[in-house]
Amino acid sequence: MTHLLSVRDLQVTFDVRPPGAWPWTPSLKLHAVGGLSFDLEEGKTLGMVGESGSGKSTVARAVVGTIPASGGQILFEGKDLAAMDTRERRHHRKDVQMVFQDPLAALNPRMTVGEIIAEPLITHFPDTPKAEVRARVGELMERVGLLPNLLNRYPHEFSGGQCQRIGIARALILKPKLLICDEPVSALDVSVQAQVVNLLRELQVEFGLSMIFIAHDLSVVKHISDDILVMYLGRVMEIGPGDEITHVPRHPYTQALIASVPIPDPVAERARPRPVLEGELPSPLHPPSGCVFRPRCPKAQPVCAGDRPEMEVVGARQVACPFHEERQVLRAAE
Ligand SMILES: Nc1ncnc2c1ncn2[C@@H]1O[C@H](COP(=O)(O)OP(=O)(O)O)[C@@H](O)[C@H]1O
Ligand code: SF4
Ligand SMILES: [Mg+2]
To answer: How much is the pLDDT for 278?
Structure first.
């Protein structure tokens, strides 16, 4: 089976200086992503979840190619991103587009909506006739639910949801093969979130897109993902079919993430088994030894401080915990 994207043992480190350090103090290595592997097939969606700081955006930026991998491989259509020549990189930049979390901040305030959407097309294909650019922008605006006669307005005249639609139209104008949505609904009102998720789902089918959909909330990704990757401190905790992971989570971190999603029914909420996630994500500058989830894990045992747990294959999924077990999720949590 050919994968559109294969990520193999991806490592991304940043050189950072502790606050207040002297200029001659050696910098520290921050391991934002420490050995992450996954595959994405054509036309499928991978949901990526984990708390803020777990390395999701870093993976996205490495796959787009805006930051270099420090180790491992990113294969797009079988080609290693690190070995691509200038022409291949240009193609890659066209084939992989992003939608960002803060829609207004992602749009240039001095450009009209029409200019914003058209910009990638004009950059990559400067000879495109003006009439064709205008027609493509108009079609896309209509497709994402914006009136084409708003073409000459500026981003600040639009709501958050509308700005995100502009960002989606801009990302689609080059007909990418892969769309990476980095927390595309986290900054939007709850009432608008479902509309944007549904729009992305429709567009994915229509354009035959593959998608990586990033969120810190499992309840957001489960409706749109074929597979789900649960990430913690730069590592995969559990990866596999979205249905299985949300209905019978195995890794203690996945179980805790699901247990932290509030159930709208107060009776079901009170009856629900704990644990709820306690404490905070440790700094990637000083990751815990052994299993990185150990300091917060309700099942942690002395042996968990030893070697990092291997990925264990359980049916169609992989789990990074030797003590994993199924936990049935209350249907009321859906
Ligand atoms: N450019 C950078 N320089 C230094 N550290 C960074 C940089 N970008 C991200 N980080 C650090 O990498 C870790 C992962 O960040 P990020 O990928 O943004 O996580 P997420 O998207 O899951 O919230 C965090 O500890 C963050 O502070
Ligand atoms: S390896 Fe140990 S600490 Fe890590 S998730 Fe499993 S039980 Fe918890
Ligand atoms: Mg992020």
So the answer is: 83
Residue 242 pLDDT exceeds 90: yes
Mutate to test the pocket of ligand 2, among 235, 296, 321, 324 (most ligand atoms within 8 A of CB): 321
Whether 333 shows a pLDDT value over 60: the answer reads: no
First-residue to last-residue Cα distance in the chain: 33
**Residue from 69, 35, 157 nearest 107 by CA:** 157
The answer to whether 224 and 237 are in contact (CB under 8 A) is no
Contact between 227 and 37 under an 8 Å Cβ cutoff? The reply is no
What's the rounded Cα separation, in Å, for the pair 59 and 311?
A: 19
pLDDT band at 270 (very low <50, low <70, confident <90, very high): confident
In the structure, ligand 3 is a single-atom ion and the residues with CB under 5 Å from it are 57
> Residue 38 C-alpha to ligand 1 middle, in angstroms?
20
**Cβ contacts of 64 within 8 Å, gap of 6 or more:** 93, 96, 98, 180
Question: What distance in angstroms lies between residue 331's CA and the mean position of ligand 1's atoms?
Answer: 34
Pairing of strands 210-215, 178-182: parallel
Q: How confident is the model at residue 273 (pLDDT cuts 50, 70, 90)?
A: low
